Amino acid sequence: MKRLFTAVLAMLAVSTLLAACGQKGPLYLPDEDKPAKAQTAE
User: I need a labelling partner for 6 at 20 to 30 A (CA). Which of 16, 22, 27, 32 fits?
Assistant: First the structure.
């Protein structure tokens, strides 16, 4: 019984680690918004 529990626990740990692989979301840093140019008074 202990061997079965250990095997199930190991399989659960491996599946959790594999599921955690990979990055969610964009794979690059988005460009920062450039500040709008100040309007000059004429």
Answer: 22
